[in-house]
Amino acid sequence: MTLRLMSVHAHPDDESSKGAASLAKYAAEGVDVLVVTCTGGERGDILNPKMDRPGVRENLAGIRRAEMDAAREILGVRQRFLGFVDSGLPGEGEPLPDGCFAEQPLEEAVVPLVELIRRFRPHVVVTYDETGGYPHPDHIKTHVISVAAFDAAGNPERYPDAGEPWTPLKLYYSHGFSRARVLAFHEALLARGMESPYEEWVKNWTTDRPDPEERVTTRVQCADWFDVRDRALMAHETQIDPTSRWFTVPRDLQREIWPTEDYELVRSLVDTEVPEDDLFAGIDARVGGMRR
Length: 292
Ligand SMILES: [Zn+2]
Hints:
7 strands; alpha/beta; binds zinc ion; globular
């Protein structure tokens, strides 16, 4: 029986910056991996100066779909859009644009994801924590609909027109951007006499909320897929400046200092013991999952 993993994201490119090496690793092991992208990223900025040229802004939605296709291909996964419209990142006090994803009522916004869960039948679902990992209204909405859909998908009384009920077995939040990890890279770079791109970040990190690192239950060893992750991220050409700090930490150093991607187990319908090193811990035996 094939194991299935669903990873829910807000915009095209989020799948490649949050947990991409684990997705590529599971796909290589024969797990059926589906990336779900809630919005088309239509209101994103062009973050790569090289791509900020005539014709790109006007066609951003189409270009981002093509970038998503390229990244999906590199990661070796499947991908579906839910079809919501990007909310953009409104400034302080600015309203959300009409009809955007973040504005949709929960009861309606959750339906396409419930349908997709019932059709794809994932054993494991991964999403963001309640902060969105990044304070973008679409990231927070992604968290909200993912948790609601996880809880509703198996219940025949909820959304009876959205397909045969399916109960996923585990729900995780991904925690890529911990202070502990950034600090570990920062210190390792300095110790090797290299320049750290994280100086400002480390100095200004607010400690008014706990480091997500403290919530990690599950570390997936995936250093062999860091190069695949980086190639997938670069495929989102409008979103990633290849000279940015994303790519300044040498991969050998990443392998040595932090070879895992980290997750928090938030729901489990199977017996498992934390800490874990596998998103499917406790599931393999139960469903007879086969992996290469
Ligand atoms: Zn995003």
